[in-house]
Amino acid sequence: MKIKQILLAALFFSLSFTCCAQDFNVSLRIGERSATVDAVTINDELVFLDRRGNILPDDYNGPDYEYYGRFDRDELQGKIKSINGIPVKYYDVFDRDELRGKVKSIGDITFTYYDIFDRDELRGKLKSVGGIALKYYDVFDRDELRGKLKSIGSINIAYYDTFDGERRMGRVKAVKGKTANVSVSFARGGAAAGQM
User: In the record, which residues are listed under signal peptide (predicted)?
Assistant: First the structure.
């Protein structure tokens, strides 16, 4: 009888972790000359992000935001504290200078950034969202591509370079691959060939 109680307790304990897992989806927006992560959906809440990974509140159509107040630490004042009850954490004074003030997590979804240990052209850019890696063209790639998003998970983004002519150079050429929890949308005039 004792073994049944232990197994039942272990089952309930393990289920408590799976019930609390948050659903998330990363939105990759492909424009004519760029590819950016512009939003993350967490438990059906759409959270807009800028190019540096900061939250852009949608006060008109968005969820309920709670903000840090004047009695919180200086680097947190005025920042979003929670989104419909989902806590938002930021890198703070105990983290590296180039990370300070950036979103560290929204609920269970973590955000990492390239820092001082990475190349200069990558420093401060979003490195991963919820374990999905973002890679950028760097010093080892063509100069005209440096700093542009190269891949997110197993989705690869190719651009026209100097060999494709001056008029096309820097434009998105193709987007290929699939990654769970990443949705791709094309802005008007976005990549013309080889999508998905």
Answer: 1-21
